[in-house]
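Reminder to self: tokens first, then the designed residues, so the page reads top to bottom the way the pipeline ran.
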């Protein structure tokens, strides 16, 4: 049985990004109820050398859109990374979902063996499409979404596994 690159990517990214947006709704309700500054959450880091929550959301969005764009052979949409509020982060998620959903199955299916080269600094790594999606893009995406979840849980936002998983 062959795996569909589309089914392994677009619905997964959309599901978790939708759930992340819902989690940010609960974060907004939390700051409203507790009368705390939203920046207490958006600028929070789990450890000093980790990115703050805002950057974690941005990276999760960037990972999703870049993964499908690279596989589909289209330009990766650029963002200015200026979001500071929960509402701005939700808007970023919404535009990411819209882009990811604009990619059609025929653009992704059959890219299992496509060469995908990532360059960071002077180091380049080339993956095959399946390896890139399953071994790099999806784990990176889930890492950053999970970090947002952990930041919010650590700060008392009442969210649980069902909020994270949603209805896949």
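Designed residues (168 positions):
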């Amino acid at each position: 049985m062959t795996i569909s690159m589309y089914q392994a990517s677009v619905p997964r990214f959309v599901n978790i990004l939708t759930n992340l947006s819902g989690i940010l709704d609960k974060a907004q309700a939390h700051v409203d109820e507790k009368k705390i500054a939203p920046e207490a959450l958006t600028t929070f880091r789990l450890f000093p050398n980790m990115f703050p929550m805002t950057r974690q959301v941005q990276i999760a969005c960037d990972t999703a859109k870049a993964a499908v764009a690279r596989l589909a052979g289209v330009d990766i949409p650029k963002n200015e990374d200026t979001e500071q509020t929960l509402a701005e982060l939700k808007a970023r998620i919404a535009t990411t979902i819209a882009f990811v959903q604009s990619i059609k199955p025929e653009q992704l299916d059959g890219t299992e063996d496509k060469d995908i080269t990532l360059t960071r600094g002077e180091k380049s790594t080339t993956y095959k499409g399946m390896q890139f999606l399953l071994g790099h893009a999806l784990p990176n995406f889930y890492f950053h979404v999970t970090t947002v979840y952990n930041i919010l849980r650590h700060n008392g936002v009442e969210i649980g596994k069902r909020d994270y998983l949603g209805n896949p």
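Strands lie at 115-120, 123-128.
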